[in-house]
Every structure is written in structure tokens, then in C-alpha cells.
Amino acid sequence: MSDEDPLDGAGSESSDPDDPEFDFESQPDPDESIDDPFADLEPGTDVTDDHFEEMDVGVVDDEDVWAALDADAGDDGDADLSGRDTASAEREEHLVEVRSYCQQCPHFSSPPDTACTHDGTAIVEAVDFDTFRVRNCPMVGADGPAFDDE
């Protein structure tokens, strides 16, 4: 058995950096002991290599592009030529409490989905944890949920 007191710290260096006796000077430099993790990788390709190919598409007429966009917007009835949203006048949006409305509604999907299965009704956004913005929900009544009317 040794005559040295193990709690004295004399004759042994602490390996715990939180120990006040820890000798930081005797530790190896971490920058010197770590190999370059990218040393085995091949040098990268030239940054001027382009992964896209330039193609000749001919002359593009601005009016044709706008006409195509107008035609696409007119297909679903959401926009007219003035750019106004014509369907929004027909939409009714409400902020509803999730627990009072959606979670009690027979049209609310089962978890983990968050959707309304009623035709024409949509959950537009989760405003916060307790509130949804819904569109065209027939369950929203002036006096509260109208589940009995369905």
C-alpha cells in the first residue's frame, strides 16, 4: 500500500477539467491531434462546370405569356381580367376554436390528419394552437356550433 494520500493530489495529475488541480498546459493541442476529416476526399470539380444546359427557345412574346397566364387563372374562376379575386366574395371565412368546433364536428378527420371532409369546406390555416381559420364551414352558426343542423 502506498503512503501517499489519494485525496492529496500529489504524485498524480487529475484528468477532470473541472478539478482545480487539472493541468491544462500538459494536455495535447486539439488542433494538432485531429486529422483533417476532408483529407481523403477528392478535390472538387471546377466551379465553372454548369449542370444546366443552355437551350434556344426561340422568341417569346410577352403578350402570349400574359394571355396564357390569364387563361390559366380563368379556368378555376379565381381571378378575372382585373386581377381581383372573384371567388373570395363567395367564400366565408371564420376563426373558430378547435375544441369547440373542429374536434366536435363529424366532418373533422381523425388524427394525425388535420382536415375537413365536408364538401366545399376547408381548414385554411392554424392561426395558433387553439384556433383555425375555416372556409365555407356550415357548422359555424351565429350562436355557436350548428352540428344539429347537418
How would you describe the overall organization of this protein?
The protein is of the alpha+beta class and 150 residues long. It has a domain at 92-149. Helices cover 12% and strands 14% of the residues. The protein has helices spanning 30-33, 62-75; strands spanning 93-97, 122-128, 131-135, 140-141, 144-145. Strands 1-3-2 form a 3-stranded antiparallel sheet, with no helix packed on it. Strands 4-5 form a two-stranded antiparallel sheet. Strand 4 (140-141) and strand 5 form a beta hairpin. It is flat, with a radius of gyration of 34 Å.
Summarize the SSE layout with pairings.
Layout: H1 30-33, H2 62-75, E1 93-97, E2 122-128, E3 131-135, E4 140-141, E5 144-145
Antiparallel strand pairs: 1-3, 2-3, 4-5
